[in-house]
Amino acid sequence: MLRIPKNKTPLYLGLVAEEAAAQFGANTITLDRTMDALPEVGQVLTVAQFADLIAEMANRLWASGIRPSEHVVIHKTNNFDITLFACAASRIGAVPVMLSAHLDGDTINALLQRLPSPTLLTDAAKLTGSLAASPLAELTARVISVTEPVEGAISLSDLAGAPERTPVTLHPDSHAIMTHTSGTTGIPKLVVHSARSIGARYRWQNIPVSLLRQREPILMHVSYVHSRMYPGIASMMLNNKPMVFLDDAEPAKVADAMVKYRPGVFETHPNSFLECESILDDPRKPFKTVRFYNSTFDAIHPGTMDKFLRASERKNPVFLQVYGQSECGPLVGRPYTRKTVMQADGRCQGYSTPGITKYRLVSRNGKPVTRDNPGYIDVQTSGRALTYYGEAERFEKQLDGEWWRGGDIGYRTKWGCLHLLDREVDQIPTIHSTLEVEDTVLHRLPELTELIIVPGPEKEPVPVVCTKDDAPLDLARWKRAIADQSTMADPIQMKLGELPRTATAKIKRLELARRLADQVTHELAS
């Protein structure tokens, strides 16, 4: 079997806006709120302005004492300026380490300890809030506040007017940026990417963007600390596509933005799509102009895709579902239309991309891999990360030569389509696939906004349900919907906002299971 060739086109994050500005400087970037660090810039800026801001911030970071190959931890209130600072750090050859605004102080402390004398770039809200008790003087070389001055921190505004610096480009296989895993199984791992590996992801992500013939706005709500963001914005800038970025995916705000900007493309996390089902009936028809929907983080329910496709008034809208991982980027994908989406198996993730990605199935028990005997999903891509920072042995345990084993299990259909059944750690012995059951029941009960099946104290399946407007679950309808499914415990109803989530809005299944177990233990003790 041929190996995936090495990517020959690295992507340097600190230079891509400058490159795009040379061709499409008037293209626009629209924000749903002003940048925390630079509110005076407003909510609309051109690509040329963005490139100038990156250069200016890079000059300030150099003036603070940061040098090439040093780590710059970016952990601040969620806002588009996170992207600006990542590109600025990259421009001087530093390594931006992207830590979600949703991580708590203890987790940030643990991640800072893994790095040798990093710079922490943050804001006053974090320094006086979740990081107030952190021993930052011991954990960092310096702290920079990008908003109001805070005692003990360098103020970014004091560095204005710093001398101009020439951009620094490191070797394409050097550490270029770090993101973190979802943390669904504990403290997140720091994933190290190079300019070459990010460039490979750009090649994949540029395919659908380059196929967009009309110059319509692309509206995105994507985590600014996720590796998806950087090849994504590069592709939009280099293809001259107007961009709209949302900090907040609260459904009412999404509806307002969709009506205001009328994008041709809408991308967000699978769980955000699920939550936005509540605005599909908005009389303003917020999704009527959407030609392409994009979900690149996890499996999404066919019923949800169908609802959004029907909410569009375009002739042939498409929903592109992509399966990927933090360590590898996008791996397989498949487009769905109104005609095909409800005929599809919800576990179908799609097909690999020749010359860019491929996968194989490896038996867990020596028997052939089938639907009833799923195997490990191994993948190969030139977009694979270099390592886990400070945990190289942990990374290497998942390698078999060029192949990466990400912990998911599934099978291949006779047509070559990859079907994902579960993460191995989420498997429940009495259920073939928790994800499959969730797809089925969600389709049967449209009043549900979420269903997560987790293992109980005796490994029994425990369904956790959320309903529209938190209405009480109709138990009779529930029992009819699950009559042909594996035996499960009684459902536990929760509010959608109570579910523990990752930076990309995925449900932390293991944490949810632990919470439920702790609740049972507490009730028994009392």
Q: Could you tell me the number of beta strands?
A: 25
> Oligomer, anyone?
single chain
- Backbone structural class: alpha/beta
Please report the number of helical segments.
Answer: 15
Integer-rounded radius of gyration: 23 Å
Mean pLDDT: 90
Beta fraction: 15-25%
The helical percent reads: 25-40%
Features:
single chain, 526 residues, alpha/beta, 14-stranded mixed β-sheet, five-stranded parallel β-sheet, 25 strands, AMP-dep_synth/lig_dom, ANL_N_sf, AMP-binding_CS, AMP-binding protein
Secondary structure: elements and pairs:
Blueprint: H1 16-24, E1 28-31, E2 44-46, H2 47-63, E3 71-74, H3 81-91, E4 95-98, H4 105-113, E5 119-122, H5 124-127, H6 136-139, E6 142-145, E7 154-155, E8 175-180, E9 190-194, H7 195-210, E10 218-220, H8 229-238, E11 243-245, H9 251-261, E12 265-267, H10 270-275, E13 292-295, H11 302-311, E14 318-325, E15 329-336, E16 348-352, E17 357-362, E18 375-381, E19 387-388, H12 392-396, E20 399-400, E21 403-412, E22 418-423, H13 434-444, E23 448-455, E24 461-467, H14 475-481, E25 492-493, H15 509-525
Parallel strand pairs: 1-11, 3-4, 3-5, 5-6, 6-7, 10-11, 10-12, 12-13, 13-14, 24-25
Antiparallel strand pairs: 1-2, 8-9, 9-19, 14-15, 15-16, 16-22, 17-18, 18-21, 20-21, 21-22, 23-24
